[in-house]
Every structure is written in C-alpha cells, then in structure tokens.
Amino acid sequence: MAGEFLSARDIRLDDRVAIVTGAARGIGRAIAHALARAGAHVIYADIEGGATGLATREVAGQKNCGRVLGMSCDITKGDDCRRTAEEAVRLFGRLDILVNNAGKGPVHLENAPATRSMKFWEADADAWRDVISTNVAGTFLMSHHAAPHLIRSGARGRIINVTTSLATMQRRENSPYGVSKVAIEAETLIWSKDLEGTGVTCNSVLPGGATDTDFVSAPTRAQMRASGRVILQPDIIAPPVLWLASDHAAGVTGARFVGNMWDETLPLAQAAQGAREPPVLRES
C-alpha cells in the first residue's frame, strides 16, 4: 500500500536466492534465518555441514519462508566455493545474494597450542596465518566463484561482507582478527568499484559491539555480563542485511552499516542513513 510504513523486517525477498557462509550458528544463522523468513531461498553454507541441518530445521516449512538447504562448504577451498555457487544456481535457477560471514575469531588463536599470549610475537604463527587465510582469502574465494552468477542477476546482485567495529580492528592483542577485518573492508571498497556497471553492489555490515556468539569466549562473555556490559544478540545485524538485499538499497555500494545503530521506528531510508558509518579506509 502506498505510504504504508515499512520496517526492515517487513521487507520481502520472495524468490531471491542467497548463500550465507558460516550459517550453522551465531551471526550467520541469524542472517540466514532473516533472509529465509523474508521469502528468499537460502543455502546455509558452513564448514560444519552437519550443523547446518539443525539450523535449517528451525525455519524450514514456516509460513512465508523461502526454501532452505544446508551445505558443507570450507571457504578456504576454491572447489567448495565453486560447488556451492553452482549448486545454488542448479537448485534455484539463479544466485542473487552472497553474505560472507564465515570466519575465525580471537578464540581460534587463544586455543592454539603454541600461543603463549595474544601479543603478536607470542601467538601461534600457524593459527595466526589460518585466521588470515580463512577470513581474507576465504571471503575472496567465495566471492570470486559467486560473482559471475551475481552479475547475471544484474540489479538484484548483492555481496554483503560481515566485518567489525573500528575499535575492534585497532584493539591491542587483537591481531590477526582485526587485521583480517580491515582487509575485508578493503575488499568491499575495491570490489564495489570493480562491479561498477554490472548492477551488483558490495557493502559491509557489522553488529556494532560484542555479540553473543562463540567468537567471544564463554568466560569473557560471563565477565561482561557480570560487569553489566551489553552483549548484543546476533539478530541485531538482520535489519541492515535485509535492507541491503532489497530493491530499497539499489545502487548503494561501497558503504558500511551498523546493526545496533539501525532504528526500526524510522522509515527505511532514514534508518539506513542513521546506521551508515564512514568507510574505515578513506581516499585522500
């Protein structure tokens, strides 16, 4: 209805086709669920393929949901990324949306056998390299294999990269995670320019604070709760993702949006403007 107020959660994405990586749990699952409930057909891609079945069962068959499918995918392996993109097209006829969420966080480094502390010279070098390989190269590989299909979708094509706050990127004892997210911000800006003229957009989203996922260790989350610090829920990121995936965000590219800055009481355009942050990397 003309003039009807819409929030991001009222957006419909019926018949669009999405891949969400790292979708078995946490932020990835929240994003995949939101897209499916908006009517998109969603492939829940995750290195833990068995866990995707548990995630998809939470929404499969719900009223107004798109079709959902769990798939095993290690984003550090090009063949897995290619197969996942091709399977989306084989099953649903097209690919419109890629959400690059899969990655490894500080806990991966903390738990590595050779890590003596989180200072870069006392960290497990192999685990450090593994985080970069997964977060940076993995995001590239999935996007590399998805992009030709997205380009065929034209103005419906979307790449949405999940990143983190500027403060987190610079926090002491937070490499390589912070390093990897700066790199993903650079990927977002460069790819948005590479895709000019195709109709496909590339943007980044972030929750806007510590989020209740296994990227933050359980003891750390317990300490935060005990001290009264706010821990965001994973679905805080859903509104900007839904908006970016929709026609409402046509032509918006190379931008960065923060979940906890999105005000659902505002019209979509105003909510998006309020949640938009300047790029982490700026041209001189």
Walk me through this protein's architecture:
The protein is built from 10 helices and 8 strands. With 284 residues, the chain is α/β, with parallel strands linked by helices. Helix 2 (49-57) links the parallel strand 2 and strand 3. The relative contact order is 0.14. The model has no long low-confidence stretch (mean pLDDT 94).
Kindly list the characteristics that best describe this protein.
284 residues, alpha/beta, Rossmann fold, eight-stranded mixed β-sheet, 10 helices, 8 strands, globular
Number of strands: 8
Q: How would the global form be characterised?
A: globular
Tally of individual domains: 1
CATH superfamily: NAD(P)-binding Rossmann-like Domain
> Strand share of the residues?
5-15%
CATH class: Alpha Beta
CATH fold-level topology: Rossmann fold
What would the average pLDDT be, to the nearest integer?
94
Class from helix and strand fractions? alpha/beta
Please bin the fraction of helical residues: 40-55%
Computed CA radius of gyration, to the nearest angstrom: 18 Å
Q: So, CATH architecture?
A: 3-Layer(aba) Sandwich
If helices are DSSP runs of H or I spanning 4 or more residues, what is the number of helices? 10
Terminal-residue CA separation: 44 Å
Main sheet summary:
8 strands, mixed
One letter per element, helices H and strands E, the order comes to: EHEHEHEHHEHHEHHEHE
Strand neighbour order, sheet with most strands: 3-2-1-4-5-6-7-8
Would you identify the regions where 5 or more consecutive residues have pLDDT less than 50? Answer: none
